[in-house]
User: What shape does this take?
Amino acid sequence: MGQPEQRAEGAGPFVTRLTWRLPDGGTAVWESRLARRRGVLSVRPSGAGPAHHVRADAVSLARLRRFNAVAAVAFVVGGALFAAGAAVAQFGSGDATECASIYFVGGLFFTLGGYVSLLQAVNAPRHVAGGAGRLVTPRRRWWSYEPGRVDWLSAFVLFAGTLVFAVDLLDSFLQGLTVQQVNRLVWAPDVIGCVLFLISGHLAVAEILHGRLRLRLHGLGEWIVAVNQLGSVLFMVSALAAYTRPATGSLVNADIANWGTLTGALCFSLGGVLQLGEHS
Assistant: This one.
């Protein structure tokens, strides 16, 4: 019979860290984010020996590196294009079609980054509790349904948010809309997408904190989560400021809308740059 898990940690119903005793008297520690991003778990042998990382097999590690690199570059490029679109709106020609075109291409990269982030969660190595302290690699999959895993749920909500943004970005090309139609077809999907980004970021924070109440920016993963969540907050500020007043036909505050998009997008670009360093 396998050894029972000693301790399960996490937030709410989600388990993000497991610690169990190995047959030789040592302990193994699995953490959700480390397994997904780096393909490792920590093993401490019995006695006073130092802990070391046990890695997944070479095929799994190579797959995780590819997913991580593609997602990171997609967010870097997508964020840069969103920032460029906001800069054109604020400082350039302000042409609506030009801005919409830049935002749309940036949105494609965000959608790619969201889907590949989901693939990384779907194909993450799985721990073997009660075994010899190792990870096993599932066969490659392009989809799964695992809402009981916080990493999967965070990535899925993020991907859903990028798809909702795509609706907003497509609708922004429509001409001759009334104020009510603009708010319903462009502004509402924008706000919904921002809410989904915030929820995804909150789940990512819950994953990396293991149920703690304070985010300590010691590790690279914590910095990535914090920077991306700041970007989501700035996107929401931008979306709220972009509401079109029915009485005047003008935005609540165009400057805040543009600056919120620009700075929020730069946060996601920075998060992508940092993510390039988060691999095995």
